[in-house]
Amino acid sequence: MLENIGAVILGLALGFLYRLYLLRIDYRQYPSYPHGYIAHLSLGFIAALLGAVALPALLAKEYAAVTFLSLAAQQFREIRNMERKTLEQLDMSELVPRGPDYIEGIARVFEGRNYLVMLVALATSSLATFIPLGWSAVGGIIVAVVLSRLKKGKTLGDIAIVRLGRVHFRGALLFVDDILIMNVGLKDAKKMITELGIGVVIEPKTDDARATLANMGQRQAINHEVATLLGARKDFAEPEFTPLCRLNTETGRAALFILPVEPDPELAVLAVRKVPVLESAIRRPLDTIIGRKASD
User: Fold this and answer.
1) Which of 188, 202, 204 is nearest to 259 (CA)?
2) CA-CA distances (angstroms) from residue 205 to 76, 107, 112, 164, 245?
């Protein structure tokens, strides 16, 4: 196996660099703490090492080394549990929580990233076993780019038409267009909502999208994402200022109400369009005969 040490080192290096790239901070600022970096980079190093040595170990008939892949899979599942528990604890102090569906999706992503790292390292070391290291590095980078594109999911802008809605009251009832949001009794609160409140209407393009929007976890993710990007003028125990995304069950349209720190309607629409579609919320009734007949 010593003759393949260059292939192993190259696969390990590219795999680890790919994990470092995937760990970049975005607007959600997670993970943003030093120990979180250490944990994820350490496991990323292990994933890259396992992927890098897999083919050279097989060629050297070191079959015992390959069995460590099964142990790695178990360890990576523990990453999902770790992230889930961490985010559940953090969610308790959020003014606009993510919700369990969004948390589960994030936890799956952190588990899946280690498998992506393993694939990049495996592809790089496999190429380096048979072709020069320089071309192997290029091939590994191409694999990393392709995997990065494949892992990108859909956003609400892909499955729905997102537009501004009119925020107004009918007595004490708050509406966005014709969709009821909540009951607001305080005059000061009604005045602030009328002056600064923003409403966004989300119209599903298909019956599949309508079923996705009906998912409560997906709508909670909308609340959290928009509040994260634009801020929310609320504090603890101020339910009338809480961002809400409610559903019109007759039409399938959803409406978001938010009292943002940055009262820019166009940015609110853009923020809703960029909300990721949760894996747990995806529904495809049109893939079934009954669903297609029901939509006629």
Assistant:
1) 188
2) 37, 29, 29, 16, 18
> Which residues touch 115 (CB under 8 Å, ≥6 apart)?
47, 76
User: Which structure tokens are listed for 219?
Assistant: 């709508």
Q: How does 66-105 read in b/e, with b if 16+ C-beta sit within 10 Å?
A: eebeeebeebbeebbebbbebbeeebeeeebbbbbbbbbb
What pLDDT, on the 0 to 100 scale, is given for residue 3? 58
210-230 confidence digits (pLDDT tens): 999 999 999 999 999 999 899
**Among 181, 155, 159, 158, which Cα is nearest to 168's?**
181
Rounded distance between C-alpha atoms, residue 182 and residue 223, angstroms: 15
The neighbour count for residue 170, using CB atoms within 10 Å, is: 8
User: Which secondary structure element, helix H or strand E, spans residue 195, and what is its range?
Assistant: helix 187-196
Q: Is the previous residue joined to 31 through a cis bond, with omega within 30 degrees of 0?
A: yes
| Phi, psi angle pair for 23, to nearest 5° | -90, 5
φ, ψ (nearest 5 deg) of residue 254: -120, 155
pLDDT mean across residues, the chain: 85
Distances (CA, A) of 255 to 10, 203, 251: 51, 9, 12
**pLDDT at res. 294:** 60
> Position 16: which residue type?
F
DSSP 3-state of 213: helix
Q: Give the single-character DSSP code of 277.
A: P
- DSSP-derived letter for residue 155 is B
Q: How far apart are CA 210 and CA 219, in angstroms?
A: 12
Check the CA dihedral 74-79-82-88 and report its sign.
negative
Asked if residues 18 and 148 have their Cβ atoms less than 8 Å apart, the reply is no
- What gap in Å lies between CA 105 and CA 84, rounded to an integer? 9
